[in-house]
Design goal:
Elements: H1 5-13, H2 20-47, H3 56-84, E1 89-90, E2 93-94, H4 103-135, H5 143-168, H6 175-203, H7 206-211, H8 215-233
Antiparallel strand pairs: 1-2
Length: about 240
């Protein structure tokens, strides 16, 4: 799915230098870790326990949408760019598109990134559901909860559309263009809803105020997360 430091070293050992895009992606992931790790430490420190299920909700959601979602979106952009240009040739031999990556490799990375994002998001949703069920809390009582639920439904729609594109429709099917466009718009909707939910979760919930009392720090976390995520869309 992603190029790690070890993978970058292996590429260099085999005589293939990491692409500029891979290095930018690595820097973006390190920035995301630099945001998520301190937040996680603060949550564990404030709760004083690793057994508080709800504290895993913001951690999982940040992993899904700050760490992984940019890889999902950027891979879609890479695929679109790959379709718009023909393969480069050297001595009559076609070279892979998108620097060292072939189209099939981009698709595999996109699928893996999507799977990891959905898995992390599922962990975040599961932690909320567990607390609501065990404490008999009502669902969708806040704007943050409603936006989050809508984001979850949209993620499922994205997964279904992606599976249709990958496994159902042939490359020449006339319906493919319509489904591809819907998949793109759904992906953009997920990005917007995720950012809205994150802002609401950090800035307008009692839990966030309890765990991170300083509104200034919470605002910085939101701005840094949003900037890191949006920057990742264009890498």
């Amino acid at each position: 799915m992603t190029t790690t430091i070890n993978e970058a070293k292996q590429l260099d050992i085999h005589g293939i230098s990491p692409s500029r895009g891979d290095l930018k992606s690595l820097c973006r992931r390190l920035a995301a870790i630099g945001i998520i790790a301190p937040v996680s430490i603060q949550l564990f420190h404030k709760s004083g326990s690793y057994t508080d299920v709800f504290q895993y909700h913001p951690i999982c959601m940040m992993m899904a949408f700050v760490m992984v979602m940019p890889d999902v979106v950027s891979s879609i952009r890479r695929l679109r760019l790959a379709r718009q240009r023909s393969p480069r040739k050297s001595n009559g031999i076609a070279k892979p598109l998108d620097e060292q990556l072939s189209r099939s490799e981009i698709i595999i990375r996109h699928q893996l990134a999507t799977f990891v994002m959905e898995l992390a998001a599922a962990g975040g949703f599961a932690s909320v559901e567990y607390i609501k069920i065990t404490h008999n809390y009502q669902h969708l009582k806040s704007l943050h909860g409603s936006v989050g639920a809508l984001c979850g439904v949209t993620i499922v729609c994205q997964m279904v559309l992606g599976c249709i594109l990958r496994y159902v429709l042939s490359p020449v099917d006339p319906k493919r263009l319509m489904v591809r466009r819907a998949h793109k718009y759904v992906s953009a909707t997920i990005a917007v809803l995720a950012m809205m939910a994150m802002c609401g979760g950090f800035l307008a919930t009692e839990y966030a105020e309890k765990m991170i009392p300083s509104s200034m720090i919470r605002t910085v976390i939101v701005l840094a997360s949003a900037a890191t995520t949006v920057a990742g869309f264009f890498i």
